[in-house]
Amino acid sequence: MTMRNRLLLRRLDRRWDGTPADPAPPTPAIEFLAADLRRLYRHRLGIATQSLVWHIAVLRAYDARLRLASRCLGVPEHLDTVSGMDLEIERVRIESELEAAGLVLRAPS
């Protein structure tokens, strides 16, 4: 058996020992998530009102950050399972839960 084959077998053995081949990507720090949420919240009120495409893009980014922040702080969320007015209500509920957990979502006026 050649050296190259031995190295390949060792790699395969490492992958089969129960450890994932590709680890999950790291979650951003909660401070960065909060800053992103504040920025996207402002965009929802500003630039996202100028175009339907921008509005949809900003809402999707906002929802993705809400999901990450919820996961970091252990807040249950159901953004993927609801739509329409229920989705808006779920956003408000999650924002409230995150703020109750200590996350500042809106910059002080």
TrEMBL record:
UniProt name for this protein: Uncharacterized protein
Superkingdom in the source lineage: Bacteria
